[in-house]
Amino acid sequence: MSLEGGGENYYLIRRFRENLNLLIFVFTWSCALYSKDEFFEGCAFVNRMYAPRIVGTCLCGAVIISTSYSKMSPLLLVLLALNSLIWAHAARKIALSSKRPFKFEKINFLFDSLFCGFWIAVIQFRPLPSVFIFSMVAMNNVAVGGAKFFLRGLLFKVLGAFAALISFGFSYGGNSESDIFVCLPVLIVYPVTLGLAFYKVASELKQSKHKLRELSNVDALTGLLNRRYWNELVFASMGRHDLISESVLVILDVDRFKCVNDMYGHSSGDKVLCILGDILSARLRAVDLICRYGGDEFCVLMTKVSIEEVNSRMLQVCDNFASRVGSVFPEAKTTLSVGVAPWNPRVVNVECWLSLADENLYKAKNSGRNKVVYGDF
Known about the structure:
Layout: H1 2-33, H2 36-68, H3 74-97, H4 101-122, H5 127-168, H6 177-217, H7 227-238, H8 241-244, E1 248-254, H9 257-264, H10 266-283, E2 289-294, E3 297-302, H11 307-328, E4 336-342, H12 350-366, E5 372-374
Parallel strand pairs: 4-5
Antiparallel strand pairs: 1-3, 1-4, 2-3
Helix pairs in contact: 2-3, 2-4, 2-5, 2-6, 3-4, 4-5, 5-6, 9-10, 10-11
């Protein structure tokens, strides 16, 4: 019987170890899915809530001590001191030390609700201080997780109040005139503090949206406008007759670009495109809309400009490009072909205007490359 019992215990211990190892593996794998970006965003959220929690716990402590000091035991005074002076720092430390700071910070907010319910019961449900403390914590819950998190916080408030009632019994304190003078200044300070914290969040969000908008409008390689955004800007310009009447659309294409990639590698091809982007930005005007249209093809909309000026500037671009690329990749013999199409009222859309410039580009290609060709319908 002892051998059989020992064998059975060994089998149970072995199964327990296997299940434990499986749980550890699953936990480790799930933690690995939590990205670094989410971790740093969570840390930023914890740090943003740090100052409001310090202010909130200190203000709540001041209200509680001002309204109920004479009725509080030494134990309650010690608990209040810990909650008012230590809890905010401990909560931040706990959240930042975890692998999921945002999740743990939300747990900290539930503990805030628990403490809130506890102290409301301790001060004997005095209406004005109780409403003040409840409102402060409820604002945080709604701001962090909306109505659903508010309800969870409400449940924890009830649990906290229930714990205090079991420990110290129920009594109702009623209102006093001094409660008004204690709570009114605090009602001003905390909403301002919370408002400043969320103003900072809103400012950061606005900056992030601005950066995302810029990234969505810019070609990642050259830093010029991308095709989609450039098309939108050209379409908008076509609706302004005072601006578009003296405008020119230009298409530039790199000659023998494939030779650069074949002879020097694709990274060298990228360098050629960046060189062209730099030259266009330097040689053209600030008002000109320059984009990398796709591959080795670039487009420019030049408004309020003469054909002579366009021709002069494009010849400078071609000469500068051939010189700079030739000094780096001499064997590729890379140059530029340019097609220019002036504005014509018969142009119905951007694609129509582009097709005209494209025809002139192919004329430049077919007549020997390294040329600027322009023409009308």
